[in-house]
Specification:
Elements lengths: L15 E2 L11 E2 L8 E3 L5 E3 L14 H7 L4 H7 L6 H6 L2 H14 L4
Antiparallel strand pairs: 1-2, 3-4
Length: 113
Amino acid sequence: MTLGDRIDSNGARPVRIHQAGAAPGSAPQRSPPSATGGPFISSCGARGRVPSPMCSCGEAEQDTAHILRDCRSHQVLREEIWPLPESLHNKLYGPVAALQRTTNYISRSGLQV
């Protein structure tokens, strides 16, 4: 995975930075990733922390597939919304009723997207 391919949960890509006073053409530093979130400098110069990619359940990265299929923290709600198995594709791209269930699930789970 290259620097340009990585996007965090807020849609931001890590940026390459030079230390103050670094010689032009010197090797840039990439903002450090870490499991707990590390410091970063955005492309506009804002400073902050890189959100952790790990889900709060601690089992896997918090990505779409994990949240909609596997996260144990939301298992009861998932079984309530989808009492019968439903494909990830249908949850994301299916008919209106399927998309309404997905929206309801995300809303009720308290997750921010």
